[in-house]
Amino acid sequence: MIGQESYQEINRFLNQELEKKKVLIAVHRGSSAGNIVENTIPAYEASLQMGGDIVEADVFKTSDDQLYHFHNGMERKNFQKDFDIRSLSSQELKDLTYCNSNLSAISYPVEKLEDTLRYFKGRCLINIDRAWDFFPLICDLVKQEDMVEQVILKGPLEEETLQFLAGEETKFLFMPKISKLAQLDLLKQYPEVNIIGVEIKAETEADDFYQAETIQELKDANLCVWINALTMNDEKKLFAGHDDNTSILQSADQGWGVLLEKGADIIQTDWPSLVVRYLESKGLH
To answer: Is 259 a member of any domain?
Structure first.
């Protein structure tokens, strides 16, 4: 059972998925290739067809407070020009032209969060990332679409966020990002928040959340453990180098296998079909 007993009804979808599959696969920005770009419904759909369980979706707020999908900072990659997408209005977004993997302009628009929620209603878990500065807007929309059970809000562990969620009558699923053991003390101060798990980070094998006893402490508190297998670049380590690249180019046992040994309940990856195959070889998923 994940989460507090008093929140079991609202956590039912997540618990059913974990009971059925044991380990869930979150797919980073969906699966983009060819003429399908990241953070769009086609990318999210492709990720599910490749065996993913959780759509990981970045969200930003336009200058007129509308909610769309995009990872700000990736404008050069996706549009081949430099600007801050957050400075645009929803009307100005209509003038943007995505570039696909061949650097060809395509007609697909920047996606509305509202459209994504409606498209995947009843189908899968959706992790909303990078939206912590405007959680009130996110929560209003999620509640409006009657999708509280399906949506996991993720963000840094900040007292302001915890106070907001504690004050909400609806107990939204929240997963803070943590990297230090001391942060667990803050979590314990907010039983009014439906904290269903944590995303942990360990840059080296000496870090707090690489240690088995620390991860077991999370599990003893009925928290699910999200570990990133993402390889962001040549330098950045999200879990001590046991990542997608290591799994594919060296040994899956030294990459995804280490995450399983450490107790990952959710693995975030850019390569869902390969992770599925590996999990199935271990009798999981």
So the answer is: yes
Helix, strand, coil content of the chain in percent (nearest 5): 40, 20, 45
Report residue 239: phi and psi, to 5°: -150, 65
Helices (H) and strands (E) counted in the chain, each on its own, are: 12, 9
Q: How many domains does the chain contain in total?
A: 1
Q: Which residues, 6+ apart, have CB-to-CB distance to 91 below 8 Å?
A: 64
Enter the DSSP assignment of 95: T
**Does residue 107 lie within any of the structural domains?**
no
**CA 55 – CA 26 distance, rounded (Å):** 6
Which amino acid, 130? R
Three-state DSSP state, 100:
coil
CATH code: domain of residue 138: 3.20.20.190
Paired tokens of 210: 């690489």
Closest by CA position to 194, among listed 177, 173, 175: 173
Exposure on the CB side of residue 49, measured as CA atoms within 13 A:
8
| pTM of full prediction above 0.85 | yes
Q: Kindly report the average pLDDT of the chain as a whole number.
A: 97
Measured between alpha carbons, how far is 163 from 97 in angstroms, rounded to an integer?
39
> Mean pLDDT over residues 160-174, rounded?
98
- CB 121, CB 145: distance < 8 Å: yes
Q: Which alpha helices (H) appear in 145-208, and where do they start and end?
A: 159-167, 183-188
- pLDDT tens digits, one per residue of 86-110: 999 999 999 999 999 999 999 999 9
